[in-house]
Design goal:
208 residues, membrane, PepSY-associated TM helix domain-containing protein, alpha+beta, PepSY_TM-like_2, 2 domains, transmembrane helix, transmembrane
Length: 208
């Protein structure tokens, strides 16, 4: 019959387990936390950071043979036919994969927002004339948009969810480790309480 674990053995087991989860989650979160911390500062001072948007404009004309593949759709939202989309991507050096267009009898209009910039494309259905305009707002805007998950796509959205989960593991294991060490560190809970009290007081007093 196996002897029951002593309190010291149980404490040692939980310390080892929590330390392992804590360092693994911290390693996974490290680069992401640095990115989100830096962009937290840039977002907080967005009005003070000068941005110089760069605008590029391009034109093209879709060949008549490809123009016929647009068919007879008169309205609604739908992607461009694959052949037209591939031709535009090669001609204008842009990405249109998965982009929905706004169809009307006269044109197909595509809004092409992305992190750190914006763009649009208009295709005249009668003449095949294409107008494209892209705006690049710089790397600070790019990082800020990634922080918010703005126009970053499904893969980045999943990354943010998984990163947030890893951060939760990091914080919860850290809290449990604080509890285990609190007996030898009398300032543990006052410091934790201060971390809660400061943002709470600021929110109650200064945010209206």
């Amino acid at each position: 019959m196996r002897p029951a674990f002593s309190a010291q053995q149980r404490r040692g087991f939980w310390l080892r387990t929590l330390h392992q989860w804590h360092w693994i989650s911290s390693a996974l979160c490290l680069v992401g936390m640095l990115l989100f911390a830096v962009t937290g500062i840039t977002l907080n001072h967005a009005a003070s950071i000068e941005a110089k948007p760069m605008v590029s404009r391009r034109t093209a004309t879709v060949p008549a043979a490809l123009l016929k593949s647009l068919g007879t759709r008169q309205q609604g939202n739908a992607p461009l036919p694959r052949a037209v989309s591939d031709w535009l991507e090669g001609e204008l050096e842009i990405g249109l994969s998965g982009r929905q267009g706004e169809w009307s009898a006269e044109e197909v209009y595509l809004s092409l927002p992305r992190p750190g910039g914006d763009a649009w494309l208009s295709l005249d259905r009668a003449s095949g004339a294409v107008e494209y305009e892209g705006t690049d707002r710089g790397w600070v805007s790019l990082l800020n948009d990634l922080h918010k998950g703005r126009n970053a796509g499904t893969a980045w959205s999943w990354f943010i969810d998984l990163f947030a989960l890893a951060c939760l593991v990091f914080c919860i294991t850290g809290l449990l480790l604080l509890q285990l060490h609190a007996g030898q560190r009398r300032m543990t809970w006052p410091m934790v309480g201060l971390g809660l009290l400061v943002p709470l007081v600021l929110a109650l007093i200064f945010i209206h």
